[in-house]
Design goal:
Distance between the termini: 48 Å
Number of helices: 3
Radius of gyration: 20 Å
Strand content: 25-35%
Oligomer: single chain
Number of domains: 2
Helix content: under 10%
Strand order of the largest sheet: 1-4-5-6-3-2
């Protein structure tokens, strides 16, 4: 059967990857006004309690499991200062806990990693859960209002920003598998805007950057569909991009994460290879396992 070529959004939907990401910010969330407030013109709620968990075996019907039950996308934004705590919270556990994940506005995605990023934040202080809020990340794709619009080649401001939440230089960010990170306000989780390090970032950014606990420097990378396939970056403790260097690899491979030590940066490259011809032909997943490409571990000096 001949398959139709797919557009940029369809490519993202079929080739995306990601994982749940969290961040903790001590003492950075102001109390949200009022008991409960909803946005986006949706109906209000009287509490922000957990939804009922449903086992996978209980999920039935034609929809995929990630669109049903406890896995289904949240349909509204809520702010609440009326939170019930079961048990007790240690006084020492204080700050803002933020969760990021895929939460499609249109509630219709082809993979459980795909969908608009949504943050959930809980403020803990003095042994109490002071406030809760959830907000969609206002990315370019979210603001377009059309979940299947052809917005161009993935990258830059075009991405879901739905994988991780992390902090650096007292700022809160979200990131996805591709594209630039977005800055969010820790006060109410509202979107400040796309963050490109004052125009110096010109590649994708990993969803899992690492902060050097001794220097405060942020180490990260970006893998791309075209050369340079892999680029290593470092930002100083003040958030200024101070180092960018391409790393020679043979092809575009899906490289989700990496690691740093006190002296090294470590990359893992595996033979999950992007196939542009498959993407053009409309393949469901335009990556293929190419064992002859091999697997490599790259060890470089920390900082470049």
């Amino acid at each position: 059967m001949q398959q139709r070529p797919m557009n940029r959004r369809q490519f993202l939907t079929r080739s995306g990857g990601g994982a749940l990401g969290v961040a903790a910010l001590p003492g950075m969330l102001a109390a949200c006004g009022g008991d409960v407030e909803t946005t986006s013109g949706l109906s209000s709620s009287t509490s922000a309690g957990p939804s009922t968990t449903r086992a996978l075996t209980q999920v039935k019907g034609d929809k995929p499991w990630w669109l049903q039950g406890n896995f289904a996308p949240v349909s509204k934004e809520v702010r609440s200062t009326s939170l019930k705590v079961t048990g007790s919270i240690p006084d020492e556990l204080a700050g803002l806990y933020v969760r990021n994940g895929s939460n499609s506005v249109n509630a219709d995605t082809g993979h459980w990693f795909i969908g608009d990023g949504m943050l959930h934040g809980v403020r803990l202080e003095g042994g109490e859960a002071k406030s809760y809020a959830n907000r969609w990340v206002r990315t370019t794709l979210y603001e377009s209002g059309d979940g299947f619009a052809d917005a161009g080649i993935p990258g830059g401001d075009i991405g879901y920003s739905n994988v991780s939440a992390f902090t650096h230089n007292n700022k809160l960010f979200t990131s996805g598998e591709i594209g630039f990170p977005y800055e969010l306000s820790p006060k109410d989780l509202s979107t400040v805007g796309v963050y490109d390090f004052d125009g110096k970032l010109d590649t994708n950014m990993t969803a899992h950057p690492k902060v050097d606990p001794e220097t405060g420097e942020l180490h990260f990378f970006g893998y791309g569909f075209f050369e340079p396939f892999l680029t290593y970056h470092v930002a100083d403790a003040q958030g200024r991009l101070i180092h960018s260097a391409p790393i020679e690899v043979g092809k575009s491979t899906m490289m989700h994460d990496f690691a740093i030590t006190d002296r090294d940066v470590v990359f893992w490259e595996f033979p999950v290879v992007l196939d542009l011809s498959m993407a053009a032909e409309g393949a469901d997943l335009p990556f293929r396992w190419e064992p002859e490409y091999g697997a490599r571990i790259g060890v470089l000096p920390l900082g470049g």
